[in-house]
Design a protein that fits this description.
Layout (H helix, E strand, L loop, with lengths): L2 E6 L7 H14 L4 E5 L8 H4 L9 H5 L5 H4 L1 E2 L6 E4 L7 H17 L2 E5 L6 H9 L2 E6 L3 H18 L4 E9 L1 H5 L6 H8 L3 E6 L2 H9 L11 H12 L13
Amino acid sequence: MGKAVFVASGKGGVGKTSFTAGVASCLAAMRFRTLCIDADVGLRNLDIPLGMNDITALDLGDVLRRDAALGDAAAEHPDIPGLYLLAAPPSMDDEELKLLPALISYAASAYDFCLVDGPAGLGSIVQSCSKVSGTGIIVTTPDRTSLRDAEAAARLFERVGGRHLELRLALNRARPSLMASGGAPNADDAMDAVGIPLIGVVPEDERVIASSNRGEALVLTASDGAAAAYLRIAKRLVGESVPIAKEFLR
Ligand SMILES: Nc1ncnc2c1ncn2[C@@H]1O[C@H](COP(=O)(O)OP(=O)(O)OP(=O)(O)O)[C@@H](O)[C@H]1O
Ligand SMILES: [Mg+2]
């Protein structure tokens, strides 16, 4: 039985897509067959940080309309075996949206992991993902505006997602020196603010930006910084006990 994980945020631009690409790459490198679904309908971009720019001809809409089988529409990464991407469609109507939860459930059984990169905010797509996922990861940056929106997201998913859903917080773009000086909330503050346990802390790392701009998966060229954080999070997702680095804690 595989695992469906949706990645969401309240505030936009906090790093969901980079996070999904990084963690999914690590899961595949750990030999877990991993499908990424880009559910940011109309704004697809997960292919870029994955290093799969425009590699896909078919998308999520084709699968939901049954014009293509999932196995045909999901493209495999050229350099990371076992990593697959189902691209986002330009639009999705209400009938297609109704079929999304069943597709995620099926994908979770056909792959070891199905990671869904959602749009920002608390709209109907992320709400339907929350109903069928075992884990929901809320990504936030360490600032009060993002944390407030993450808290609103957590309360909504607790209500909508039901008891099977485990919610976890990912703190992205963390800067230890700013945290140490009190200029930004640390991981403990973030957990207190949002009220859910932490799955990991990803440091600010300019290679996340540079590798995406080169159209290259970060984990193929880096093994420390954000890449190491994504790997630790992938290990926690498969049940390994990996401590949070002390520099991010109180
Ligand atoms: N750990 C990090 N260090 C430095 N830059 C980062 C990090 N994580 C993400 N970024 C950068 O932040 C920007 C936004 O990231 P990304 O597109 O992943 O966010 P998003 O939450 O998916 O946005 P949207 O809400 O629009 O879907 C990108 O330029 C990305 O390269
Ligand atoms: Mg995104």
